[in-house]
Amino acid sequence: MNSRLLTLAIFVALFALGCAGSTARKSVDDNQEVARITVENLFGKGISVYYREPLNPYLYLGYIPVGEKRTFQVKGPFYETRFTLIAKPTIGTPFYVNIPVGLQAGKEIYWAAEHRHFAKLEMSEPATE
Prior knowledge:
The protein is mainly beta. It has 1 helix and 8 strands. It has one domain (22-124): Immunoglobulin-like (Sandwich), CATH 2.60.40.
């Protein structure tokens, strides 16, 4: 009887931790500082994209089907250190790209994500309309 309660307690605790993990970004207010990350999926399978700054949890940006390109808005504050982009295929090993500079408000990043190697990454000022 005690082992069943212990098993149930462990299951509930793990479920709660899973729910408290990565979450999708909420909508961005006009007054907040934002950066844009555009990811083109060249993997050959769908990928989930995550963003992470040191000592912070992974932030789920979204899912990109094969061959498509999506732009995500990441709200600040940003820390002037470094960050990591993660492409997690639906099947297979995640691919991590460590960027040695900090993401900055008003900047745009373009990442052509390919399996097993760093295809293309650009950081630029946003286009003016």
